[in-house]
Design a protein that fits this description.
Radius of gyration: 18 Å
Length: 218
């Protein structure tokens, strides 16, 4: 959903997209803690904070000359669309390094898959509720992603093969819903789903390949 509403807090204006990101990350952390435990939830929280910080300070890369002239701009701006993708790539690299260090623990893969679906679903729901648009588009978004949220919470403990299928179906569902929204296919949230979904499948592939190598050498 496109941003149509803004919040002003003590002279600072925030788009609903920022607010939705914070709400989604916070609620996702609580849900993961409740569903999988504190240890698994903390992994998500650490990388969520990492994502926000990279996106925030990516303005140094995207607008270096402006930052040099006005250093305080870092407090009020982020790296925009380019910084958003920089944050996604950096987060994926950070997650992969940690997972590889822990030999692709099954519990972490489970948490990663469910975290993507839960966070994106919460983000889409909060965006649809906060911004203006056609009623049927807004409520289609809310209902569809609420169903995905329910599925992820209820069935997140199932086997790896089910989670692989789930992330693919979730991505295809997001494409369908995005095409019915004003922003269409080229929405940053949809691109984020694509990148993270491909990353999840890559991590699962890396885990399977690592296991086969261990079996071959044993």
């Amino acid at each position: 959903m496109p941003v149509t509403e803004w919040y002003t807090i003590r002279g600072v204006t925030l788009p609903t997209s920022w607010v939705s990101v914070l709400i989604a990350f916070t609620l996702a952390g609580i849900i993961l803690w409740w569903r999988y435990g504190k240890k698994e939830a903390s992994v998500f929280v650490d990388h969520a904070i990492f994502f926000i910080l990279v996106w925030k300070f990516s303005v140094i890369v995207t607008d270096l000359s402006l930052v040099i002239k006005q250093p305080l701009i870092i407090l009020f701006f982020n790296g925009g669309t380019v910084g958003f993708y920089i944050a996604i790539v950096a987060t994926c690299i950070s997650i992969f390094r940690q997972f590889k260090k822990n030999a692709f623990a099954a519990s972490q893969l489970r948490t990663l898959t469910m975290a993507i679906i839960i966070t994106q679903s919460l983000y889409q729901i909060t965006m649809a509720l906060q911004n203006d648009g056609l009623a049927w588009q807004r409520w289609l978004t809310v209902v569809a992603f609420f169903i995905w949220l329910f599925i992820a919470i209820k069935n997140g403990l199932n086997q790896d093969i089910w989670r692989k299928q789930l992330i693919i179906l979730f991505s295809l569902s997001h494409v369908f819903i995005a095409l019915l929204q004003p922003g269409g296919f080229w929405q940053k949230s949809l691109m984020a789903t694509f990148i993270f979904s491909l990353f999840v499948l890559f991590v699962h592939f890396s885990k399977d390949n690592s296991r086969k190598q261990m079996e071959a050498t044993s």
